[in-house]
Amino acid sequence: MPADLKKNSKLGKVDLLIIAISILGMVIMAYLTYLKFTSGKSSFCDFGEGVSCSAVNQSVYSTFFGIPVAILGFLYFAAVSGIIFNGVAGAYPLILLMTVASLVFSLYLSYAEVFLLKTVCVLCETSKVLMVLIGGLAFWKTRSVKVKIMTNWLVGAILVGVLGIGLSYFTQKGFTPTKNYDDFARCLTEKGWTEYGTFWCPNCGRQKLMFGDSFQYLEYVECDPRGDNPQTDRCLIRDIEKTPTWIRESEDNSTELERQIGVQSLEKLSELSGCPLPE
Hints:
This protein has helices at 3-9, 13-36, 53-57, 69-85, 91-117, 122-144, 151-172, 182-190, 202-211, 232-237, 266-273; strands at residues 46-48, 51-52, 63-64, 67-68, 193-197, 219-222, 245-249, 256-261. It has 279 residues and is of the alpha+beta class. Strand 1 and strand 2 (51-52) form a beta hairpin. Helix 2 (13-36) runs antiparallel to helix 6 (122-144) and helix 4 packs antiparallel against helix 5.
């Protein structure tokens, strides 16, 4: 029997299960990577404003020092399958530590989804479930071969994950507002400015982040029928081709007075509307 077949024949059922889970994870991450580099397109897992793979995967929180998190996830799953397939010494405790560090880091991403973006990526969360399964199987195999898991190893893995969270936070904190823009947003609405967008549009997400919680005071029109309170007819009447599109309308919304396409800085919106920014 060839040497490579002998090596493969040593793989147990748990090993094959870990490899299968890893391959599924690689497929998910490959799709999310594709989605990251094809901005402006909707995903099959965009179910509404609160559940959108596109909105999350194309947001500022989906990169780590410019590297898409999906690519890092792909490398994790590829490493796990490679370690098992090649019978690397100490494979199970190594995979367990890798998984602990990755899961700790992923907590920040889940936090960003729920509390900052206010939408959930189903595929992103599915990948974390796969990681939990891999970590659980690795832990079970580690115990079954009677390898002692050193506490300092686990603490080190947790600290690596925490370090990743800290680095992500400091590189992305500039995208979250530090001032209250309630009055500014209300003023824009009073002056007749309306933002037309879609819930999955990455640039719409960036525009929304600029306002933070004050976004609720803007006049916003959802153009995707799957979004919350869609007004597709209004978007068709205004011939919206790209999002976000800012339009200044007459008081009864019957006449378009001015149009700006794309993400607008708060300074530009202030200049266009005459609404003062907070000091």
